[in-house]
Design brief:
409 residues, Jelly Rolls, 4-stranded antiparallel β-sheet, 14 helices
């Protein structure tokens, strides 16, 4: 029977459960608060980068005004006036001024990084200086994303102007929307990849980034429609209505961004749960093996080295086809055979419970061999999901040691 976690319904339900479990809406509210204070320094730094590296200052200020209107529609004009006035003062661009601006963005980047770790169920307990360095790197990452997003707008505009002379007007809007979706997806995927503390499959990364980019592009007209329908929202908030709209918009932006991360983690969890069948006495079912092979399968030729003695790689293996031999090189230089592995055999258990270098090499002795190759990080997640698997692994390791005590010497 098909596994439930392979269905889209599982992904949807697990993502919604993760949103509730990790309080994504609360994280979004905190990020929007930090962003409100960090936005002006962030835009000033982006303006400096763009005006010195890409285009002229005047052109950069126009494009940044468009970006700011997307982020804070009610405050964009006032912010850009302040940004323009600040950038006219050369004294502000000294080293101290640059570091102050950089440090102002640090709380936003730090909270964003901690949100990644929370959603990924990973602990991040660095030392004080290690944390400061990571926060600065996160700030630079945020700067780079905004910089690339703005620079991509220049490229997109040039491409659309070029297409306008070769395509009918009816296709220009469609092409512009598709190109914008492609660029936004690429930038979000790059940011997810750089800051997510998990090993994510590239397909899951691209899919999650595309969902995030699509939601983000659809959210702006929907939010504008909401404001146009509720024209009297200012009666409640009075002179603070602009602040309310800006915070609400930032809140929605961060919510979409974090929902994309939840989706990415859920898709990874689906792959991790696929491994449970290895320990449920079901690996002989063909449909299960095919699914496992697509995700974790790897083929080696004869005499290929799966892992080398003394190596630091941490993987867990299952032989689906072919023969693999574990051998250890003695100090005299001779090779001591330890174990012959064939269809259905597992190896690599020691690496799951130890960070020590491999005590033997695994070499393919048949014409070819097909293996299931699993990152130890995935096995760690699976052990947290079902601790009973750890008992089976320890029993398996104990049986192998009894057969050949040299495996632990």
């Amino acid at each position: 029977m098909q596994y439930a976690y392979e269905s889209p319904w599982f992904v949807l339900v697990a993502t919604l459960r993760g949103i509730s479990k990790h309080n994504v809406m609360g994280l979004s509210a905190a990020l929007s608060f930090y962003a409100l204070f960090a936005l002006i320094p962030l835009i000033v730094l982006i303006f400096f980068l763009i005006s010195h590296l890409v285009y002229s200052s005047d052109y950069a200020i126009v494009k940044l005004a468009i970006l700011t209107s997307n982020l804070l529609p009610e405050f964009s004009q006032r912010i850009m006036i302040e940004v323009y006035n600040n950038t006219q003062t050369r004294a502000a661009w000294g080293l101290v001024g640059f570091l102050v601006l950089l440090w102002t963005i640090t709380p936003l980047a730090a909270h964003m990084r901690s949100s990644f770790y929370l959603i990924a169920s990973r602990r991040d307990v660095p030392s004080f200086w290690n944390k400061q360095i990571r926060d600065v790197i996160a700030v630079l990452g945020v700067l780079m994303v905004f910089f690339l997003f703005t620079a991509a707008g220049f490229i997109l505009e040039s491409v659309i102007l070029f297409l306008a002379t070769h395509l009918p007007a009816s296709l220009i809007t469609v092409m512009g929307g598709l190109l914008s979706l492609l660029l936004t997806t690429t930038l979000i995927a790059g940011f997810y990849h750089a800051f997510c503390p998990l090993n994510i499959n590239w397909r899951h990364l691209i899919f999650s980034a595309m969902v995030t980019a699509t939601l983000w592009m659809l959210m702006r007209p929907a939010f504008g429609l909401f404001l146009s329908i509720n024209k009297n929202y200012g009666a409640i908030f009075g002179s603070m209505k602009a602040m309310f709209v800006s915070i609400s918009w930032l809140y929605l932006n961060f919510a979409v961004f974090l929902i994309g991360i939840e989706l990415m983690v859920t898709l990874r969890q689906k792959d991790v749960l696929l491994l449970k069948g290895l320990f449920d006495d079901l690996p002989n079912q063909q449909h299960y093996l095919h699914a496992l092979l697509r995700r974790y399968g790897k083929t080696y030729t004869q005499n290929a080295v799966v892992f080398q003695q003394g190596g630091s790689g941490r993987h867990y293996y299952m032989v689906l086809e072919g023969t693999v031999q574990l051998v250890r090189r003695e100090e005299s230089g001779t090779l001591q055979p330890l174990r012959i592995l064939q269809n259905g055999d597992f190896f690599g258990e020691i690496a799951l419970f130890s960070s020590q270098p491999a005590i033997a090499s695994a070499i393919v002795t048949s014409s070819h061999a097909t293996l299931i190759e699993i990152y130890a990080e995935y096995m760690d997640d699976l052990l947290q999901e079902d601790p009973k698997i750890a008992v089976r692994l320890l029993k398996q390791l104990s049986d192998n040691v009894q057969i050949n005590p040299a495996l632990i010497n």
